UniProtKB/TrEMBL annotation:
This is Mitochondrial carrier domain-containing protein. Its main location: membrane. One of its GO terms (cellular component) is mitochondrion. It comes from Lineolata rhizophorae. Pfam families: Mito_carr. Solcar repeats lie at residues 22-104, 119-203, 216-304. It comes from the Eukaryota.
Length: 317
């Protein structure tokens, strides 16, 4: 007599959750996608957003004029080399690696697409902030805001000169100033982007009749990612706080030792609610572009790399 339990008719077994192996190619892919994102639209949108957040009396066109006056088109790429490239080449790899692992483990605990996506994004964002982004975002903001010196008729210091001056004066803490705000931003950023993108994918599947797990088309995937990226700009106050904490713009009314709470209070008292959302328009554009690159293109690129490496292994055998 067999001891195996009979299958229940009409009841489908839950799909087996497979853990994908950690591949060096995926880490390179994450770095490559982020380098592409920041070198195309990413850095110009970052510069506009940061300029508006640091100069909260400026509107969109005022910020554009301020940036153009710093060096024309090159002004929109201030801080790209080396800080944005260092950040992009490392944070993309960290994000894809940690987010994929966290999303897998969330699924093993029974989480659905939305919860698993949020979990993966939050863990990936947290790892990004403390592993590589703290000093990079600080130095990018310094690069963008230090031109107050040039406006006063003085020659602004070079990139490495600025870095070493901060390090000598304030040490590692100075280079990583605002890292806790960066961590909060990244956790909420990628938690929102991955989670909302997966949620949007579910909506797109319902509209297109692909609820059975059929593969989404490129346009459908991009729409879902764009929705997730744009909606993730809800946390703009954290971004404005981060910029203010890292800014080199002088203000005698600003508290000397800034914390997230003190910075929030200072911005609210000087600029009100609108000040906390200054720069949200380019931030939405940046969120859409980053999410399309890292979620939509990331999913397709991972599939292509896996297929290519799989075909190479098969050919060898």
């Amino acid at each position: 007599m067999s001891s195996a339990a009979p299958a229940v008719a009409g009841v489908q077994a839950p799909p087996k959750i497979e853990k994908k192996p950690i591949k060096f190619s995926n880490l390179l892919l994450g770095a490559g996608l982020n380098m592409f994102e920041v070198t195309t639209l990413g850095q110009p949108l970052e510069v506009i957003k940061t300029t508006m957040a640091a100069n909260r009396s400026d509107g969109f066109m005022g910020a554009m004029g301020r940036i153009w006056s710093r060096g024309g088109m090159l002004g929109f790429y201030q801080g790209l080399i080396p800080w944005a490239w260092i950040e992009a080449s490392t944070k993309g790899a960290v994000l894809l690696f940690v987010a994929s692992e966290a999303e897998y483990y969330a699924r093993t605990f029974g989480a659905g697409n939305f919860v698993a996506g949020i979990s993966g994004g939050m863990c990936g964002g947290l790892a990004q902030a403390y592993a590589t982004m703290g000093f990079c975002t600080c130095m990018k903001t310094v690069e963008i805001t230090k031109h107050k010196v040039a406006a006063a008729g003085k020659k602004p210091p070079g990139t490495m000169e600025t870095f070493m001056a901060i390090y000598r004066a304030e040490g590692i803490r100075g280079i990583n100033k605002g890292v806790n705000a960066v961590a909060v931003r990244q956790v909420t950023n990628w938690g929102s982007r991955f989670g909302l993108s997966r949620l949007a994918e579910t909506g797109v599947r319902r509209v297109t009749g692909k609820e059975g797990g059929e593969k989404l088309g490129v346009v459908e995937k991009i729409i879902a990612s764009a929705l997730g990226g744009g909606l993730s700009a809800w946390n703009q106050p954290i971004e404005v706080i981060r910029v203010e904490m890292q800014s080199k713009t002088e203000d005698p009314n600003r508290p000397k030792k800034l914390t997230v709470a003190k910075t929030f209070k200072y911005i609210y008292q000087t600029n009100g609610i609108k000040g906390l959302y200054r720069g949200v328009s380019p931030r939405i554009g940046l969120g859409v572009w980053q999410t399309v690159c890292m979620v939509a293109l990331g999913d397709y690129a991972k599939e292509a790399v896996e297929k290519l490496t799989g075909d190479q292994v098969t050919a060898k055998h």
